[in-house]
Amino acid sequence: MREQIIQLRQQLRGFQTALLTLAEQHVETLIPGYTHLQRAQPLSLAHHLLAYVEMTQRDWERLGDVYQRVNISPLGCGALAGTTFPIDRHYSAEKLGFERVYANSLDGVSDRDFAIEFLCAASLIMVHLSRLSEEVILWASEEFSFVKLKDSCATGSSIMPQKKNPDVPELVRGKTGRVFGHLQGMLVLMKGLPLAYNKDLQEDKEALLDGVKTVRSCVEAMTILMQEGLEFCPARLNAAVTEDFSNATDVADYLAAKGVPFREAYNKVGKVVKTSLAAGKLLKDLSLEEWKIIHPAFELDIYEAIAPRQVVAARNSYGGTGFEQVRAAIALAKQRL
Q: Which of 48, 79, 115, 330 has its Cβ near the most Cβ atoms within 10 Å?
């Protein structure tokens, strides 16, 4: 377990590096941001990718915590009660690189918390990989067309020659349930065991060994996908952020900056969105006269304020999607790695 955790943490660093490389290439590429899978506000694509860098950082840290509970020596606990021989458990633990020893022999022979904790951490890694997989699958669809899949990480259909199927993210999404199952199996295995050792504990091997193999394979596959398996379509992405009303909040912010109470501004913008939809217009299509009918505070600078690139750039609070913040976040993440 110690060896596998160290290697998995190294793999997570490689995955983060692949995401960061992509992020550096797409700081000023825009992508629609969603809540409830409805268009919300435009984002820097790099900001979107950096969210997964942060998730993976927590995974990396969590595994470090798990390592501390794995790095405890059970040697010398005997069958359950210790031994009559004059051994030095601390000496053997030190020689084998363990930080400490189990303080109770009954606990030492029957504890599987470390295995369950690892599978918890592995399950969260799989949650994050699965969420990214789902997004890639959506992005690669004809309806989104945000990415193109390369042949190295996709296959054709068995009967439909025009198709390119997202094999890697679909398989990772599917194998997530496998790791969850191992965690659930271990919890059920342990819940009713009296102290100390019981033959039931044979079952921990399949869960743990397959769980390790599965999560490491999935991290490797997703790293390859990010490195060489897909290509973003900046023209399509930039066009997508001009096709909706995701700049409506910025209209309300514009009025608020002019001294209009935000609640009033919010209501006015909500009404103009409804009328624009009915007229088949976007906010950028409204004339200045139409803006002034809504509120006399509107001036020509409203067009700049609601341009997608400015909408993104303006969100310059710490952790936001503004280009300056994204570049700073990339620099910080690289330093952390």
A: 115
Active-site annotation holder among 90, 141, 152, 157: 157
3-state class (DSSP) for residue 191:
coil
Q: Determine the pLDDT at residue 334.
A: 96
CA 285, 289, 295, 301 torsion-angle sign: positive
Q: How far apart are CA 272 and CA 298, in angstroms?
A: 13
**Model confidence at 156: pLDDT above 90:** no
**2-74+111-240 falls under which CATH superfamily?**
Fumarase/aspartase (Central domain) (1.20.200.10)
276 is catalytic: no
Q: At what angle do helices 248-257 and 262-279 cross, to 10 degrees?
A: 140
Name the DSSP class of 228. Answer: I
Is 47 within 8 Å of 33 (Cβ atoms)? Answer: no
In the chain, list all ranges with CATH 1.10.40.30.
248-306
**Would you call 36 a catalytic residue per the annotation?**
yes
* pLDDT band at 163; cut points 50, 70, 90: confident
Please pick, among 36, 158, 287, 317, the residue that the annotation labels catalytic. Answer: 36
